[in-house]
Amino acid sequence: IGALTFALFTFCFAARAGPQTVRQKRNPGVKRITIAYLLNGNEFKSEDATLNSVVGKWLLDVQKQAQLRLKQDIKVEIEFKIGSFNLTNEEFSKNLQTWISMGSCGSESLMHAGSVLGEIKEESTYWPSQPHIICVLTKLKLYQDDFINLLGYVRHRTLCYTSVPMLLTYTPSSNVENAGNILSELVLNSTASGSSPVPKEYFDKCNENQFFQHQYVLPSRHRSVTQNGEEERSTDARIGTTLALRQSEGTRRCFSDV
């Protein structure tokens, strides 16, 4: 199963015993996406892992903006439901430290996006219960392939069919609208089509289950996906490039991994 130890019916990267949930009224026609947030335990404290904290309130505002942007872009009303909001546990926090590189041309420390997402995707396949999205929140900017200073990253295109890992950078000093737009783009890039336009019917699948009890397989009309498959990996650079160019935060890589 790998380096991490998994406990039954918990999100096993989380340090806390039980998830904090947000109860929301069901509205007909609304497409609901469940997200488990994991705060980097090396950067955040236990008091940050509550929706009443500064971090929690920021994230709720970001979600609202992302919902507005998605409704504007694809004409679908999406509602994010927070399934859990926790710190990463000690072991995964240590792993996160190994995926950080020091910049060599004026760049600050950066986290390698692909390594984080690959670890979460692989290990989460053993969870008995999985949300639609597992999002790691970090204060660091990201790098992938030839791009640095990314504020968000996603590589898997299986949203609503299997759990999708994401990375989002916590940027409280910047415009919440920008962070919300990044989250909305991450959601679009995690669909089978990879961007807008996304058929309205696509998100109906998310409404069937708030959590996956087993791995789903994409229908044959969509791109086939296998764990760590060659085709899946080949999309990394293009998705990373899209985020870098559209957010104007990503720049060409100019540093050596350490």
Describe this structure in words.
This is Putative 26 kDa salivary gland protein a. It comes from Ixodes ricinus. Keywords: Signal. The chain has 258 residues and is an alpha/beta fold. The protein has one domain: Collagenase (Catalytic Domain), CATH 3.40.390. It is built from seven helices and twelve strands. The strands form three sheets. Strands 2-1-6-10-9 form a five-stranded mixed β-sheet, sandwiched between helices. It has a five-stranded mixed β-sheet with strand order 3-4-7-8-12. A two-stranded antiparallel ribbon has the order 5-11. α1 links the parallel β1 and β2. α1 packs across α4. The longest helix has 21 residues. The two termini are 27 Å apart.
Query: How is the biggest beta sheet arranged?
Result: 5 strands, mixed
Q: Number of DSSP strands?
A: 12
Shape assignment? globular
Overall average residue pLDDT = 76
Contiguous uncertain segments of 5+ residues: 1-11, 215-249, 252-258
- Helix amount: 25-40%
Gap from first CA to last CA: 27 Å
CATH architecture, by name, is: 3-Layer(aba) Sandwich
User: Structural class of the helix and strand makeup?
Assistant: alpha/beta
Q: Provide the CATH top-level class.
A: Alpha Beta
Radius of gyration: 17 Å
Order of strands across the widest beta sheet?
Answer: 2-1-6-10-9
Oligomer: single chain
Give the amount of beta strand, in percent. Answer: 15-25%
Secondary-structure element sequence?
EHEHEEHEEEEEEHHEHHE
Enter the CATH topology name: Collagenase (Catalytic Domain)
Number of helical regions: 7
Organism: Ixodes ricinus (Common tick)
Signal peptide: 1-17
Protein name: Putative 26 kDa salivary gland protein a
Keywords: Signal
